[in-house]
Each structure stands twice: as C-alpha cells, then as structure tokens.
Automatic annotation (TrEMBL):
Entries under PROSITE patterns matching the protein: GP_PDE (PS51704)
Protein name per UniProt: Glycerophosphodiester phosphodiesterase
Superkingdom, natural source: Bacteria
One GO BP: lipid metabolic process
GO terms assigned for molecular function: phosphoric diester hydrolase activity
InterPro entries hit by this protein: GP_PDE_dom (IPR030395), PLC-like_Pdiesterase_TIM-brl (IPR017946)
Domain GP-PDE: 14-258
Amino acid sequence: MTRGGGVPYHWLTEHKIAHRGLHDRSKGIVENSLSAARAAVCAGYAIECDVQASADGEVVVFHDETLERLTDATGRLDALNHFEIARLTLRGTREGVPTLRDFLATIGGNVPLFIEIKSRFDGDLALARNVAEIVAHYRGVVAIESFDPAPIAELRAHFGALGIAGAPLGVVAQASYEGEDWRFLSAAQREELTQFSHVERTRPDFLSWNVHDLPHEIPRRCREDLGIPMTTWTVRSAEQAKTALAFADQIVFEGFAP
C-alpha cells in the first residue's frame, strides 16, 4: 500500500466536520445549504458538502441524484440546466440550491471544506475537472474526496496542471459495497473498492471511513502504518464519537453538538 501525496495536511483533522454543513430542520436549516454553511462557520466547524453537475456542467451543492427529498420538484438533478436549478427552492425554506462557487464565497476561507464528488462510477471525469477549476481560484483550505477512485486518480495525475497542488485528495470508503445502494457497480468495481486496490492510482492524502465498519484492517493500515489521517462518517451522538475516535483522527458528524 502506497503513502498518499506525501504532503502533511495537519488541518485535515484539527476541526470536527459538520456533515453537509451544520443543518437542523427544526431551525429551518437544510443540509448543503448556504445557511448550513454559515452556521458551521459561526460554530467553528469544518464543513463537508456534496457536489454534482447540472445538465450544462455547473457544479452545484446537492446530495441526492433526484429532487424529491429536498425540493418540491421531481426528477433527476442532472436533467436540469443551471438556470432551471436556480429556480428551485429547498423544501421548507426560501433558499435555493447553491452553486459550489456561492458555497465557497459564503465560507470565505474561514473554515476548512471537504468537497465530496458524487459519481455514477461511469468514467465521466468532467465534474472532477470542473471542481478543480473552481477550487484552484479559492484562497481557503479545501480537500476533495469521493467514493469513486476514478475522479481522485484523475486529480492525482494532473493536480499540478489543474492548479490544485495544495488541495489534499481523499477516498471515502466502507467495508462492503453489496446491497441496493451499490447495485450499479460492476463485479470488478466492487472488488476494487472492497480490497482498496485502487490505492496505487489514488494515493490518498486522507481517508474517510464508515463509522459502522470500525475497527477495520484497511483504515488501520492506512492510519497506523502509513500515517494517513482518517476521518469517520457519519457520527450521530457523543457516545458514538467517543468510540469512533479510538480508531479515527476526526469525526464527520450531524444531529448533535460535539
């Protein structure tokens, strides 16, 4: 197993990380919204967010592939262009779906940001390149991560030319990729993820592992043998956080104040 990019990024684990921002439905603050970003900044937490591409390539901050859970619209997010997405309202608020550029402007470099590139594992690297183009012009500290090894390997191979040499690259992972959520994976993709055999191409600077799968040999080797920092997701209680931090360097949390 190969060490990551080789650059020490101490800030990766200095702050607890608010999952999709510091959201709270009871206060009208929806996940991945600008208000969730502002709340996290005010509390001094780092932020994790999810990004996807509109039909015309705009990078937007949104978790789901479909619109129903978070808006009053229906259908796939990537079927809409950025003008159509701009007209959407996050359910229960007056806020729209933010672009990554707006999200970065709202954070303003005040806290670290972890950008998770959502992927259909179909080999399309346009979103990764577009994220890199935006991040290259941002003065705050940003890490880029994904479940899919392909965009991370692409950014690793070209990070200098893309202008993101200062941005650590990470892999989000877990022990198993069976079940309905992973039905789209080929057998070869599932084996690569399970065995973490992409490590020679991704060379992660950090790892983010599913808290329910700890302890596990892969994150243990990355963290203890190679010195790769590890966060763990998604921690939902102080008790769970205490247990998780026996095996990880920092938590990605939601639903409580750590």
